[in-house]
Structure formats: structure tokens, C-alpha cells
Amino acid sequence: MPTLRAALAGVVGVLLIVGVAFAVVGPTTAGTPVAAPAQPDPAAATATLPPERPSTSAPAAPEDRMALLRAALLRPSEVGPGWRVAPEQPLPNPSVPAVCGGHSVIARFPDAQRVGVALLGSRSGERVQETLSVFGDRTTARAAYDAYAEGLDCTKGSLSGTPVTISEPEDVRDRVQGDRATAWTLTGSGFRALLVSVLTGDQLVNFVFLTPDGSSLTRVDALVLARTGVARLQAT
């Protein structure tokens, strides 16, 4: 039977990309991802959902806006004492399937501009990830939000071969803000993750809060932290 450390290591490589199929890569320089080719997940599930037609619209956001949004992502000090930027940062990977199978949001909506950050906690196995996708218009962003929820529309799923149980979706807009906001809890052997997906304007922001089973995030409630992240993006 795999140890908790081994189980969490495997989950970090897949679970934390579930928001929009980001791959964890590294190293980083001053918290900024170093460009590297995304590697296919070796246990990717068979895709069942057809990709959306690629958009022919203009780029979703100018580079200066993306730089401002990147700077607005969550910071270690906001999570709690001892938190730090992870040495491996997320980059988009369209080959990683949704938890319930089928193409990921990245595969279905390849033209968005995307940034992300991963943070490590003071306790072994604690990790937070925020991934942001900016689309060419609000309609496309809403479709991507719905596609994300569609990828979690089952009670039993798989993360690179690791079985997980998925809770019913919970409307958390009153606590997180945004145009729409939904949360799910994923439970596997030795770990638990809270996923929060938020639609705000032309942006889709996804948070993943990973902890060993039975523990909780240091100091800050996950939904409070998600609201902090959403508020900063809205103000940028």
C-alpha cells in the first residue's frame, strides 16, 4: 500500500491541475514560471467530450494586463505563517483530462491566456493553487465555467488512476463573490481537496486547497482566501 507521502506526491502532479488542467513544472525564478514544454500525463483517461471549435477572436488580453493579473495572484503571507512559493509552478497542459473523464477546459478552450501560482504550507502535504484563464469575451468565459463544472459532474472520478469521491457542487457566490462561484470537495486515500471555481467577467479563476485527510489549512479559511484572490483580480 502506498505511503501517505507517495500518495500526496502523485496527487500534487494531477489534482492541483484539475482546475484548468495545469501541469506542475519548474523551477521558478522569483516566483515566475520558467517556460518548459508540458508533459502528457501517462495515465490520462480516454477523452469523451469533443473539443470546442478554436476561437478566431483577438488575443484575450494584452500582455500588460496579464502581467498585472499575474502580480495579483495569491501570496504566501495571505495563507499563513510558514507558507512559501512552490519550486514547481503550474503551466497549461491540455493532455490532462477532467476528473470525470473527457477533455479539460484547456483542451476545449485553447485560446485563453493563462497564469497560475502554487504555494506550499508549513505542514507536509498542504498546498494551495490558483489558476487564472482570461478569455476573449464574457460569453466564452461562461462556457468555460460550465465546462469546468461538467468535468466534475460525477460522484466517483479518477486522478491519474487514483480514485476520488466528489461531493455535490455547492453554490458559494455569497462567500466568494464573482458572477458565479461553485465549490466541490474531492476525497481520496490520505488526502482531501477543496476546489473553488469562480467566473468574473471574462475571467475563470480556479482554486485548489489540498491537505492531508483530517487536517485543515493553516490559519485562513479556504473560502475566505478564495474571496481575497477574487477581489484582487476584480480590482486589477
Describe the structure.
By secondary structure, this protein is of the alpha+beta class. It is 25% helix and 30% strand. It has 7 helices and 13 strands. It has helices spanning 4-14, 63-71, 76-79, 105-108, 138-150, 173-176, 222-235; strands at residues 22-25, 28-29, 32-33, 84-85, 89-92, 113-120, 127-134, 156-159, 162-166, 170-171, 180-188, 191-200, 203-212. Strands 4, 6, 7, 8, 9, 10, 11, 12 and 13 form a 9-stranded antiparallel β-sheet that branches. The chain has a two-stranded antiparallel sheet with strand order 1-5. Mean pLDDT is 79; it is low at 1-10, 13-20 and 25-60.
Question: Could you write a compact summary of the structure shown?
Answer:
With 236 residues, the protein is of the alpha+beta class. The protein has helices at residues 4-14, 63-71, 76-79, 105-108, 138-150, 173-176, 222-235; strands spanning 22-25, 28-29, 32-33, 84-85, 89-92, 113-120, 127-134, 156-159, 162-166, 170-171, 180-188, 191-200, 203-212.
Order of helices and strands: HEEEHHEEHEEHEEEHEEEH
Head-to-tail CA distance between termini = 47 Å
Shape: globular
Low-pLDDT runs of 5+ residues are: 1-10, 13-20, 25-60
Oligomer: single chain
Radius of gyration: 16 Å
The tally of helices reads 7
- Biggest beta sheet attributes: 9 strands, antiparallel
The total beta strand count reads 13
What is the SS-derived class?
A: alpha+beta
Strand fraction:
25-35%
Average of per-residue pLDDT values: 79
Helix coverage percent of residues?
A: 25-40%
